[in-house]
Structures are given as C-alpha cells and as structure tokens.
Backbone:
C-alpha cells in the first residue's frame, strides 16, 4: 500500500517509514495556522492522508482511495484535530464504523478556542471538544501510517461527525 498525502496543497507519496515520518513532521510542526494580519486572511490549512494500491493525484478520475484521515494542526496553540472516514467501496470495515464520519473527541477540552481549522473553504473551526494536544494528533497519525491499512487510529477517542468537522453528539 502507498501512502497518498496532500500536505501544503501538494501531493506526496510514501512507502517507507522515513518518508511517512517526514510527512508527519511537516504536518505537525509546519502546518500553516490561522492568519488574520492583512492583507487578506487565512483560516489555516488541512492535510489529507490515505492508503491505496496506487498513486492518486488531482488528474486521477477513475478511482479514489477508500479511506481518509484529515489532519489539522495549529502549531501556535499546540492543538490539532482529526476527521476519519471511509467510502462505500471499503468492504472490510464494520458497518457501525463505515456508516459515519468520525471526528476526534476530547473529554477534557482546553479552556480556550485553539482555532484548529476543520474546513478552510467555509471557513469552519473544530469544536473545542474535538481538539487534541498536538502530541496526541502525532500519535494517531503515526499509528495510521505504521498500520498502513487506512483503518481508523485507536490511540484517540472518536465521536460521530461530518466531513466539515461538526460533531453530531449533543455534548460537543
């Protein structure tokens, strides 16, 4: 399986741990945070990680990976968040996992909004109950890459959500 990643808006591919570790470090340590000092603003950036048999790119239209881990980190606040989902093409995932999009869950959220972007296009930011300390985001991303299957990382807690990072539980 090949790790397909979009980091800083560019496609990257990795098959070795050294290549994957470089991508992990790039996301965790060098993600662009929210910027509001004119001219213009930026909500920050996200990165996408998937495993597939081949290399997927912007020009590939006949197939897509069946798993996605979306990662956002605000290195200025030390927090990040995750969104994981699979497509209907994935046949080895229990139905209770496959039928939902999953958002990282933090039962002990920070006492402030760390401004971790969920969807830069709207823009939309993660709920404080979905943000995790950056060390936990790194651990989940490392697990995802080490297993190499595209399965949901088990090192963090998850809650039902949507692809825009919204939580579907009433407590979030």
Residues:
């Amino acid at each position: 399986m090949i790790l397909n990643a979009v980091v800083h808006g560019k496609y990257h591919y990795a098959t070795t741990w050294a290549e994957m570790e470089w991508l992990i470090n790039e996301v965790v340590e060098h993600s662009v945070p929210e910027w509001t000092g004119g001219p213009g603003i930026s909500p920050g950036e996200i990165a996408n990680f998937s495993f597939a048999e081949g290399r997927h790119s912007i020009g590939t239209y006949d197939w897509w990976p069946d798993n996605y881990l979306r990662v956002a980190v605000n290195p200025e606040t030390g927090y990040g968040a995750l969104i994981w989902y699979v497509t209907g093409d994935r046949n080895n995932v229990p139905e209770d996992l496959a039928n939902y999009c999953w958002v990282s869950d933090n039962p002990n959220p920070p006492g402030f909004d760390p401004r971790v972007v969920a969807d830069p296009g709207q823009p939309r930011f993660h709920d404080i109950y979905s943000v995790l300390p950056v060390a936990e985001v790194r651990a989940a991303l490392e697990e995802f890459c080490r297993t190499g299957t595209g399965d949901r990382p088990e090192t963090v807690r998850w809650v039902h959500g949507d692809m825009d990072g919204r939580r579907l539980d009433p407590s979030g």
